[in-house]
Every structure is written in C-alpha cells, then in structure tokens.
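Today's session is about reading a structure prediction critically. Students often jump straight to the picture, but the first step is always the sequence itself: look for stretches that repeat, for charged clusters, for runs of hydrophobic residues. Only then move on to the predicted structure, which in these notes is written as discrete structure tokens rather than atom positions. Here is the chain we will use throughout the hour.
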Amino acid sequence: MQKFFLTIGLILFFLSSSSAQDIAPVPAPADVALKLGTEADQHRFHLGELIPLTFSYSATIPGRYIWVSQSSTLAGGRSVEITCKPAAERVNGIPKSGADLTFARILNAPCGGVGGGVFGGCADCDTEYPLTKKALAFGVVPMNEYIRFCTPGTYTCQASSAQVTSTSRDEYIRPALLLKSNLIVLTIVGDPGWALSTALANARVYDTLCRGDDVAERRFLECTDVARRITYLDTVESLTVEVKFFDGRSHGWDSGFWDAIQHSSKPEEAVRLMSARIQEPDFEVSPSVMEWMASSALRMEVPEAFESGTPATYHAQAIEKLRVYVRLLGGSLNQKNSTVLDESAKTYSNFADQKYCEPESLIPAEEQNNVLTGLGARP
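Below is the predicted structure for this chain, in token form.
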C-alpha cells in the first residue's frame, strides 16, 4: 500500500511539470547498487594512458529494478557520468554540432539565421534488463571517454547514472533512480618521455596494420585499441600523429582521429596542423572539415561569438574566415590525387558558390573558373 501511494505521488509530481525530463532523478534505495572498479584493480596510470574501467549493476531483490538502455525514455534519466576530486576535465564525446550550428547561424545572420537539427541514435538499442544479485556488467570501458586528467595527482572518483527504474514499460511515467557508485582512488603521474615513446610506438603499429581498407574485416579491434591509445594521450606528438593519419576519407571504420582533433586541448595547434594537411595530395576535404576549420579560427579570435554574442555582429569575420580556407583548398586542388580530387573539388564549389546573405558569392565566379580549369569535369 505504501508503494502504491508513493507511485501515485510521483506520477502527480511528474505530470505537474512542464517536462518530465526536467525532473531530477529519484535517489535510489539501498538495495540496488552501481559498482565501479578498474581492470585488474590497477590504480596508478600515466597522464593520457588508457584507464580501463569496469562497472556493473545489481539488486538484492531480483526483478524489482530494471536497467534501461535508452535513459532518455525515463523521467530524469541519464547515462553514466564520472566525477573526480580534485575535478578532472569532462570529455565531450559528441561532435561539436552545436558550434557548427552557431557558426552557420552567424554566416546567415543577415538573412534571419538558419534552422537545423541533430539526428542520431540507434533504432535497435532499446533494451531493458531486470537486475538480480548477479552483476549486470558491461565489460571494460575507457575512463578516457568520460574525463581527461590534465595534471598529475591523486584523484578520488565516482560513477553515477540514472538508467535504472522500478517501473515497468506499461507505465506512462517511469521515474529514473539516481545511483552513485563506490569511490575509487587513482594516482596519475606525469611522464613526458613515456607519452612521447607511447605515441611513436603506437603510430608505428598503426602505420603497419591499420592503413588499408580491410581493417573493418580483419583487424578492427586491434586497430581501434591502437587508435584510442594515441588519441587519449592528447599531446602535441599524438595530435601530430592523428593529423598525419587522418585523410578525410571513409575506410569502413572510424579511427576516432577526426573527433580527437576537434576536441584537442590544443586547438591552435590542431588548426595549424590541419591547415597544412588539407592541402596535401592525399587528403579528401569534406564540408565538415571546412566548417570546423573556419569556426575554430573564429572561436579562437572571438570566443564570445559562440557564447553570448549577437550572431550578426560576427558575420563579416565568419565570412572572411571561411573564405580563407576555401581559397586554401582551391589553391591545392591541382595537386590532389585522383582518389580525392572529385569530392574535394565538390566541397570547394559548394562553398565558393554560397552567398551567405551577401550580394556576391563567397568566391568570385572568375576566380572559381580559374581554379577549376584543367581539373577535368567540373563538379
């Protein structure tokens, strides 16, 4: 009876809110647990080293609680988060679509802005598991996907999530339960020599095993692991390796290098290296690369443009940033390999033809024709 009235009270509470997702999750009872650990119970790591986490859910009463893969379907739901004391930098694993959208809004501000949306997800990953005394584990997950340690020290870390509920699928409102894990203590040491040798060693392995188009079929797990160990280092040397091996093309698998370049803690170096890379013969230049280059350059010059500024205020600067990189691409097209020329030329033409609320196109027609003459068929 007590549980019945509790459920009714929660439903009325959620319905009175404008959005159930705006509600904080309910603190979890003591009979359901989230356990956090490290593989082999290791607690000492280098800065940038892959930190293999293990976490699992369990409940003392089988079937009372349910783990839900799509936490967004729960009221107050959210996936796993890792926090540490002292604080560590949170890693944004989502590509900077928000920044790109803001940049597009700045470019089109005189016309009244631009609409857009972000789509993603998995149509087949809506799964649920009843919790039991036997741990529901998810294998080894790199801690580096959640946080990045920027300085050496001793850190006390904890996981939390709101992916568990005690309400079945049949209920209209399914309140999420907030679980907090046990604490773990990690010692993070700084060793630039180790970081350099690790970057170079993994680069050699990647260059030997992961440069072909058969990685997805033959060496996917091995190459994914090697690529991760490079990206997690987040040093100038690892960034240089990432830029070198990223050629803008799809090879049937995602090395993660492009995402790491976009989220590097050294954005100025990333833009500098990529400015040279997009001009090289083997690099296929896509619209997303061009937009990131221009938006990153603008962000470094006037960060307030992406924070609280009025988009129209920065329109002229955004136009000029983009024009610089479009011309940089145009000047390199006659040196591009045949495998990447068509897509790179198409990217050039698409941007060069845009007016972005100006009376003339980004690149004058005569200049475009001069660039494209002699490349073969115009895109």
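Discussion point for the tutorial: Residues 1-21, 93-98, 114-124 have pLDDT under 50 and may be disordered.
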